Amino acid sequence: MAKAPQYRFCAGPWNFSEGRDPYGPETRPAQTFDWKLQALKELGFDGMMFHDDDAVPEIDSKSPAQVLKEAGELAKRLKGEGIEAEMVAPRLWFHPNTVDGAYTSNDKRHRRYAIDRSKQCIDIANVLGTDLIVLWLAREGSYMRESKDGRRSVDLLVEAMDAMLAHDKKIRLAIEPKPNEPMDHAYIPTIGHALALAQLTRDPARVGALIESAHAILAGLDPADEIDFAMAFKKLWSLHLNDQNGLKFDQDKPFGSANLRVAFNQVRAIERNRYGRQGEFICFDVHPFRTTKPEHYLRHLGNSRDTFLRLVEKVRSFPEKQAQALISDRNYQDLDQLVLNHLMGQ
Fold first, then answer.
1. Which residue in the list 46, 52, 53, 54 is annotated as catalytic?
2. Where do the domains of the chain lie, and which CATH numbers do they carry?
3. Is 54 one of the catalytic residues?
4. Annotated catalytic, 167?
5. Count of CB atoms situated within 10 Å of the CB of 333
6. What is the pTM of this model?
7. In Å, how far are 136, 253, 337 from 180, measured between CA atoms?
8. Which residues of the chain carry a pLDDT beneath 50?
9. What is the pLDDT of residue 5?
């Protein structure tokens, strides 16, 4: 299926997961970075997302000069393959220093580690040719309310972002909210929280948001509404499309897998806000089902892209005049059926 002209697609190395979960080991062999890069090329994707230690493995064991050298080597490889680096994110939830949070840790030394690593992440992004730093605040929260002061934690988040904004005058920060997991309670659970936090920083114009479909669903929200809200502020700088079967663990299902109508409305929001017209990527943060065989390793990505493009066609062919007539008549019952009939091809 041909791509809609204005859309470019990307995924991250972690989207080729091996099937491990908390209750069982891997079900597929691990693949090399070269294999993953070639797979994106074969799928017709245009970009790749990175954590800092995706770009430079074992990053904490290397000197700053070695980190930048390896980032430069990666930049050459990406350019040679015609793949762009969409963003870089500091991975601040694996290291022992981040067990009690990164920017909001109760240990000052650990907060310093998180900020220093974030600055290094910015340096990597500059080498890779992207100005977008994504902040998934994975452990910025608490397992018990009494362990941290929520107001102080907001101040610490702003302090960390201010340090990043001061480190580089052009870099943009995109906050990726999520209400829970791995923390019991997250400090920045929704796009509204993210955009409010941006206003407290030294340069609010350079702090925006990344929306992930599943994270919005986990917060009990509709992803389409979150997209519209962020676009109203011109602050939607990255988008992770996937799906989620209710209020469970973060499933990262293929886009449209659990609720096609919710996916349809996300594409409607994307289209009406003209997201992607400024070169933004449509990113699929999806994982293969654990039962997936190695020979089907790429289907979750290809299927997500194909579903998205089919829904673009559905959005563009939606009978808007008929819908508007029903809306004017407040006949939402038939509007509901009009949407269902359109999705079912009737």
1. 54
2. 8-318 (3.20.20.150)
3. yes
4. no
5. 9
6. 0.95
7. 12, 17, 35
8. 1-3
9. 53
